[in-house]
Write a structure and sequence with these properties.
Elements lengths: L2 H12 L2 E5 L2 H4 L3 H8 L10 E5 L2 H16 L5 E4 L5 H9 L4 E5 H11 L8 E4 L2 H6 L3 H10 L4 E6 L5 H7 L6 E5 L3
Parallel strand pairs: 1-6, 1-7, 2-4, 2-5, 3-4, 5-6
Length: 183
């Protein structure tokens, strides 16, 4: 585990949310450590982590990485992306999963159209927030974040000097800290 991710985990112990400013190459292959810390063992039923990504490719990369890591703990991971069979994805979620990895739009669509149960959710993670805002995902993220139960939230963004993003995040994040991570 990288020192940077250790800092994020340490902050999550005392805060409800952490906004992390870092390039994806610094954190992308270390995300499992955050999930592993918050979801240490399997439980039946509802998802306990949702990770929303900026693109299908990014979601597929993270899901493949999580599948390998989750096997050792017997956790289930499901992928929901726009370039996929929506009905199959929805059915997979209803069969029960602990970790959902997907694109923001598809996670939001499936949640609001079919309503999977999020009462046990412990972690909501948004990757590349600045990119997601640039391509118009802001509304989807806000709708998801506002409907979530109380859970840990981690937002990753590349740039820290965007006043629009800071003001937007303050609409749904409370008691959050900000970390600047570099290599």
């Amino acid at each position: 585990m990288s020192e940077a991710i250790e800092q994020v985990i340490k902050q999550l112990k005392t805060r409800a949310a952490v906004v992390v400013h870092a390039a994806p190459e610094i954190y992308i292959d270390h995300l499992w450590a955050i999930v592993d810390d918050i979801i240490p063992h399997p439980e039946e039923g509802s998802p306990r982590a949702i990770i929303v990504c900026a693109s299908d490719e990014e979601a597929r990369h993270i899901e493949a990485y999580f599948q390998k890591a989750a096997k050792a703990k017997d956790l289930t991971v499901d992928l929901v992306v726009e370039k996929g069979n929506k009905l199959k994805q929805r059915n997979d979620l209803f069969d029960g999963t602990e970790i959902i990895v997907g694109t923001t739009r598809r996670v939001c669509e499936i949640y609001f159209q079919n309503g999977f149960n999020i009462k046990k959710l412990k972690l909501f993670m948004v990757l590349r927030m600045d990119e997601q805002m640039r391509v118009g995902q802001k509304g989807f993220i806000a709708r998801l974040a506002e409907s979530l139960p109380k859970c840990k939230q981690v937002i990753f963004a590349k740039h820290s000097d965007d006043d629009r993003m800071i003001s937007y995040l303050e609409e749904f994040l409370v008691n959050y800290s900000t970390l600047e991570l570099s290599e």
